[in-house]
Design brief:
Distance between the termini: 39 Å
Helix content: 10-25%
Shape: globular
Radius of gyration: 18 Å
Strand content: 35-45%
Length: 146
């Protein structure tokens, strides 16, 4: 009985630690409330580029900050996260050899011209398992190793 209690305590500590480590944030977008996290069990942080190009980039940092560079090469500092459930479990649609997620991001700084913060926007994020590539908006990608 004592062993079972110890095993249950260890399992509960692991669950609490995993949930805390997930770092879920509640956001409000135009279409309602969403939850985001920076961890989805794949190495999603890093720099995403169009094939053969050095710019424009999307940079996703582990701390939930980054850079989103537009096609005109103007850069915006962003905060970002992948959509998840309230408990931190990622939301995604799984295909035959890919998975599709929602990458939520917004400008970190106020727009000096409008003096208003821009809202949260979601972008298509996909992982292609056979190619070992991740894509943002279907065009900017990075390779990954499992």
């Amino acid at each position: 009985m004592k062993k079972l209690v110890n095993v249950l305590i260890i399992a509960l500590i692991a669950l609490v630690t995993t949930t805390q480590a997930q770092n879920v944030e509640k956001i409000t977008a135009k279409d309602g409330i969403h939850y985001i996290t920076t961890k989805i069990n794949y190495p999603i942080t890093g720099t995403y580029l169009s094939e053969g190009a050095t710019e424009p980039i999307v940079q996703l940092n582990p701390d939930g900050t980054g850079i989103f560079q537009l096609d005109d090469l103007s850069k915006a500092t962003i905060v970002w996260g992948m959509e998840c459930f309230e408990d931190g479990t990622p939301k995604y649609q799984k295909g035959f050899n890919y998975a599709v997620y929602s990458l939520w991001h917004k400008n970190k700084e106020e727009n000096p011209e409008t003096k208003a913060k821009e809202g949260w926007t979601n972008a298509h994020f996909s992982i292609h398992f056979e190619k070992k590539k991740m894509f943002i908006l279907g065009e900017r990608s990075k390779d990954y190793i499992e």
